[in-house]
Write a structure and sequence with these properties.
The protein has 178 residues and is of the alpha+beta class. It contains 4 helices and 11 strands, in the order ββαβαβαβββββββα. The strands form 2 sheets. Strands 1, 2, 3, 4, 6, 7, 8, 9 and 10 form a 9-stranded antiparallel beta sheet that branches. Strands 5-11 form a two-stranded antiparallel sheet. A hairpin with a 5-residue loop joins strand 6 and strand 7. The chain binds 4-(methylsulfanyl)-2-oxobutanoic acid and nickel (II) ion (NI).
Length: 178
């Protein structure tokens, strides 16, 4: 369904897969334990999809917009790709529905190691408020994604270290209790 793996320690060439050798997979269950959830939807039908509507209604995802990450479509592409890759957290969940292309979300596991999550067309992924994470396109340099939000969107990112926020403390607490 969704492929994820522990990353090697190299900080170069962010768009490469950075698998360990041998590969060390991370399961969907392990992702759920750190608060990362996933749905697979039919992205060809995103404009009129009852399954997406149901998720949006149940979760209260009232806001949505669409971002195209591609050198010809996104102004200041290279700088933005670098910026998305800075380790950060948000005070709210990050909810992304990949409509086309492919890319990686990296999240910190319980042991603070990087987990790389490969997403592509049809993947709806949610990262919990307070989790340290980052994003990068892969070598295809192309991702079209729907950004969803509960109410008015707040895009503010706090780069690590951001350990003093209540939401960060609550997130860390939620890990030790599960
Ligand atoms: C983010 O929050 O890092 C982004 O919006 C990146 C693009 S969304 C696929
Ligand atoms: Ni983010």
């Amino acid at each position: 369904s969704l492929e994820a793996w522990y990353m090697d320690e190299s900080s170069e060439k962010q768009k490469l897969p950075h698998r360990l050798n041998p590969n060390q997979p991370v399961t969907l269950t392990q992702l759920e334990q750190i608060g990362v959830y996933h749905w697979k939807l039919n992205a060809d039908n995103y404009e009129n999809d009852p399954e997406l509507q149901k998720i949006r209604e149940e979760k209260g995802y009232s806001y949505m917009d669409i971002i195209t990450i591609h050198p010809d479509k996104l102004p200041d592409y290279e700088n933005k790709v670098k910026m998305f890759y800075e380790e950060h957290l948000h005070l709210d969940d990050e909810i992304r529905y990949i409509l086309d292309g492919s890319s990686y979300f990296d999240v910190r596991g319980k042991d603070d190691r990087w987990i790389r999550i490969a997403v592509s067309k049809g993947d709806l992924i949610t990262l919990p408020a307070g989790i340290y994470h980052r994003f990068t396109v892969d070598e295809s340099n192309y991702t079209k994604a729907m950004r969803l939000f509960v109410g008015e969107p707040v895009w503010k990112a706090y780069n690590r270290p951001a350990d003093d926020f209540d939401i960060r403390k609550a997130y860390v607490n939620s890990l030790s209790c599960s």
